[in-house]
Amino acid sequence: MSAIHNVQAGNTAITVRKDLRVPMRDGVELAADAYAGTDGAPRPALVALSPYGKELQALALTMPPQRRPSPMWDGCIEAGDIARVVDEGYVHVIGDLRGSGASDGEHIGNYNAGGVSLGQDAYDFIEWVAAQPWCDGNVGMIGISYFGSMQLLAAAARPPHLKAIFVSGGHYDFYETTYHGGIMWFMPRAAREGRGGDSGWAFTDRVKSRMLENCTPDYVARRVAERLADPDVAAWPNLVHTLHYPKNHEAWFDIITNELYGDWYEERNPVALAPNIDIPVWLQLDQGRGWTLDGTLEVFHRLRGPKKLDIGPYPPMQSRPFIEEHDKMFRWYDYWIKGIDNGVMDEPAVSVFVEGSREVVTADQWPPKPIEYTSLFLRPRGKLLAQPEPMTAEHAAPDGFYQAPLTVTDKVEILTWRTDPFEQATEMIGTGAAHLFVAIDQDDSNLILRFWDEAPGGRRQLITTAYLKASHRELDDRTTEGNPYHPHTRAVPVEPGRIEEYVLRIYPFAATFLPGHRLVAELSNDEPLVDEHNSLLPPDAFHLPVGRPVTHKVYRDAEHHSRLVLPFTSAKAP
Fold it and tell me: Are residues 409 and 306 in the same domain?
């Protein structure tokens, strides 16, 4: 039963309509809360949809924003600043997706609810909101992360009353959200079950595994046995537990048992659906989350209607409750929904904050400047230089490291290469590639590259990253210089001891290295759990460690030009 009452949030008086029941076309009802001004006038609505629970989102009325690192930062309060939305003359409508929170129905698998696409449910939800007496018939959407992905799914379904969307920090290619370069990432589990707490999905007994629902018991048992045979999985207690008791961790069970790209990820992939979207779309993302920036750019290039792209400054994680980017969002919606000519469409389509110089570069395309791909070569004594190594392997012996499993050590071994100090400001914007000639003494390992801007005093900031599971080294026909693509559709075991060329995709970035600064490249097969960057991410935001002892030899000699291919827009490195 819905109820109406008024609350005061700071200076804002709000009428709250609690526990509204929103009918879907198949008879299922979703639960929603609506926050509006107390004057009763119809207003445009901004809709937020996720499985994280509308009651959790209501904390935006009472909880001061928390930034990482903070013990009170909690990852799923992401629907936006309720009081600000009402102040700006909109109704904020927050709904629980099918099978979660107070909504009916079942939630099964990836962006799929009981066989009904979440885009279909979003269509019905938006059209119901538009018909309510407190809405003037115009609808936009709001929220980051899962809320952002829902905006694309909704827009691709083309509800007539959805006029525009503003997506901040969305996730798109779901495979690349859960497996970076084929290496499992734990943050989706943290989002599912709570990041350092319990506020993940709003659980019900109607959230179910797609694998358990759609596959035969024999097939599931075979997949579980295959995953448990992977030494990396077998060495990590939480994964072993989930594989044996999947009904307590249904979404994460699906991720573990789908380590290759396939139908489970392609189904209703927001990137694949982007060409169906012709309403105005503004995409925004902060730097430091390169895998998500990659998907953001893919979506941007595929959109059909008016569009803008805004890449903001480091650090990567926004406050919880989410409050950032509202100024830009309201300019966007005031123009497209309220019809206010505020000049937002007279500005360049692309805006990129460049770390280092701290300048904003604008253009009508990505990359915002012409680039020239240039190689920096890995050299002996930890050097990164513009010239390749002239000596053969006999004299330029390979660099190497042995990594013991983290079950027996807490030390992550890292190889490091540095440029000489830059003599002049040097800008790079775009994707890149790392070509590494490596011999591995096991049938698989991880290759993790992290790139830092190191100041003369030693202070450093992460610029971008690259990941590749060695058995996923195959490239596909989309690959070009500086822009490699891996299909991740099969795993090809490594021949132990054989020198292979591994090409890692360096995620998009924008940085200027100031005079005296160095570019630092670090290679490992695991990653430190805490450092200058990882402390800014949620708990559990790290990658599955390698569960076997592995020796790696990195060749960078006259026959093996291990190198970084980087997108320079200005003067080259020394």
Answer: no
Q: Assess if residue 574 is contained within a domain.
A: no
Structure tokens at 472: 């996923």
> What 3-state DSSP class applies to 123?
helix
Alpha carbons 349 and 307: distance in angstroms, whole number: 7
Question: What is the DSSP pairing of strand 446-454 with strand 518-524?
Answer: antiparallel
Which tens digit of pLDDT belongs to each residue from 454-479?
A: 999 999 999 999 999 999 999 999 99
Is residue 225, in this structure, part of any structural domain at all?
Answer: yes
Residue tagged 């008024």 (tokens):
6
What does each C-alpha distance from 33 to 128, 257, 379 come to in angstroms?
13, 36, 60
CATH code, 462: 2.60.120.260
List 435's β-bridge partners, or say none. 503, 563
Q: Residue 318 maps to which CATH number?
A: 3.40.50.1820
Kindly report the pTM of this predicted structure. Answer: 0.95
Rounded Cα gap, residues 574 and 17, in angstroms? 63
169-217 tens-digit pLDDT = 988 888 888 899 999 998 877 767 765 566 778 877 788 888 998 899 9
pLDDT at 202: 86
- Strand, coil or helix: what is 154? helix
Report how many domains make up the chain. Answer: 2
- Tell whether 332 is covered by a domain: yes
Q: What is the DSSP string of 168-199?
A: EEE---HHHHHEETTEEBSHHHHHHH-SSSS-
User: CA of 403: how far to CAs of 178, 222, 445, in Å?
Assistant: 24, 30, 10
Domain membership of residue 339 (yes or no) is yes
- 448 with 397, same domain: the answer is yes
Cα-only R_g, the chain: 24
Claim to verify: residue 130 and residue 227 sit in the same structural domain: yes
Which residue range(s) make up the domain with 271?
A: 3-347
The Cβ of residue 544 has, within 10 Å, a number of other Cβ atoms equal to 21
Report pLDDT digits (tens) over 102-138: 999 988 876 655 567 889 999 999 999 999 999 999 9
Q: Are residues 425 and 563 in the same domain?
A: yes
